[in-house]
Write a structure and sequence with these properties.
Length: 408
């Protein structure tokens, strides 16, 4: 039976799981209220252990024991499959999914893992769960993909190509891994992702930015100033902490992001970067520092937690656009706006790419460059003027014309 002990003034849980003694230190002070709260957590843990549904990492994600039990679960599952199937029979898709997810758990962020699990449970497993991995054919996969386009679960529009590709990606990874592991040819060979229609970005003009910042709620003016002039992603600015704001060097250190109300590692290594503060951004931070003195997050809620971006979008962003008579656009367009304004001002593309967290300038030119002429009026007229000045006035004589002969 689990015990609740006190160690250095903080409460500790002492229990046994799979033959191992587990002692986990908590951040709870040793008070009657905290003991009562921890007692309920312990009761839930004991119930899940009894039912066989307890996952150590769900309760103690940073514990070394979590890694130990993850590895133990993989070994037990692999041994069970080996005993059940022998050398000739391979696991079903449902069984292999359990192995695969256990192995991928250490690689993925929790939010990504939950997205994959949701797609597998909603689409892949209902179709393939009981089929052995080596019995799934290319025809099965193509037929499955065609059914996604007319998904009967959806009462409105069918799934878009982007969503279908996201559903097919874990299926491809599963079958390719199974084929490599059990030495059979992957049925996914030769199947390409669906072509996705290019979606144009819709950045705001500088005049629209000024209009928005002049009319937005005062308590969100600094927030949107930083969004418009830094190109930060929603999760990056909502998870921005004062420890990552260097006012002396005028830099924003992008190190963490908020996903599903949890602080986590940035989207990828390239997303970790230092963003230069322009003067409006620097001034916005000065004002915000006075407003949130002592708080952890630069743009946190009243109770000190990160902003809930859905609430901000619904209660502040969209009502403001309607009030100003502007086309409704997602807040992510503030990031696109920063990119187009930087390009229009003549900043180095390499510098802009670093500010955006891109590893190269390729995406920059592919996505944003068409907006530069609209913003700077450098629309080829300079080349026309060059032709008019040089090509017309300095036209060489026609080849048939004799040297020194004047044109008629």
């Amino acid at each position: 039976m689990a015990k609740i002990n006190s160690r250095y003034g903080k409460l500790q849980i002492d229990f046994r799981y799979k033959g191992q003694r587990c002692r986990e230190q908590t951040k709870f002070e040793d008070t009657p209220q905290h003991r009562q709260r921890l007692k309920k957590i312990v009761e839930r843990i004991e119930a899940e252990i009894t039912l066989g549904t307890f996952v150590y990492r769900d309760y103690f994600p940073k514990s070394a024991k979590a890694d130990f039990f993850d590895e133990l679960d993989k070994k037990v599952l692999a041994a069970r499959l080996s005993q059940s199937y022998g050398m000739n029979a391979l696991p079903t898709m449902g069984e292999f999914v359990d192995i695969w997810l256990a192995e991928k758990k250490i690689e993925w962020r929790d939010s990504h893992r939950m997205t994959v699990i949701t797609n597998l449970n909603s689409y892949v497993l209902p179709t393939f769960e009981n089929k052995r991995v080596n019995d799934i054919t290319k025809a099965d996969i193509l037929n499955f993909r065609s059914t996604l386009a007319k998904d009967p679960k959806r009462k409105s529009s069918p799934l878009k190509a982007t969503t279908i590709n996201k559903v097919m990606t874990p299926l491809r990874m599963l079958l390719n891994e199974a084929a490599d592991r059990y030495e059979f040819t992957s049925p996914f060979r030769g199947i390409k992702s669906l072509k996705i229609q290019k979606v144009d970005v819709e950045p705001f003009t500088l005049e629209e930015v000024r209009l928005i910042l002049a009319n937005v709620r005062e308590d969100f003016r600094a927030y949107y100033t930083v969004r418009f002039f830094t190109g930060m992603r929603t999760g990056e600015i909502d998870g921005l902490q004062w420890q990552y704001v260097d006012m002396e060097r005028r830099q924003i250190l992008v190190r963490e992001t908020v996903v599903d109300s949890k602080l986590t590692y940035t989207k990828n290594d390239g997303a970790q970067r230092e963003i230069h503060m322009s003067q409006p951004v620097y001034d916005a931070f000065l004002l915000q520092r006075n407003a949130t003195r002592g708080q952890r997050f630069v743009f946190g809620s009243r109770n000190g937690t990160p902003l809930q971006h859905n609430n901000v979008t619904k209660r502040v962003w969209y009502p403001l656009l309607r009030y100003l008579g502007l086309k409704q656009r997602r807040p992510y367009q503030t990031r696109h706006t920063a990119a187009t304004l930087w390009l229009a001002s003549g900043e180095s593309p390499e510098w802009i790419a670093r500010q955006m967290g891109h590893t190269s300038t390729e995406m920059l030119f592919r996505v944003y460059s068409r907006y530069v002429p609209n913003l700077t009026r450098q629309d080829g007229s300079a080349f026309d003027r060059l032709l008019q000045q040089r090509f017309i006035t300095d036209t060489p004589p026609h080849p048939t014309q004799k040297k020194g002969e004047e044109e008629s």
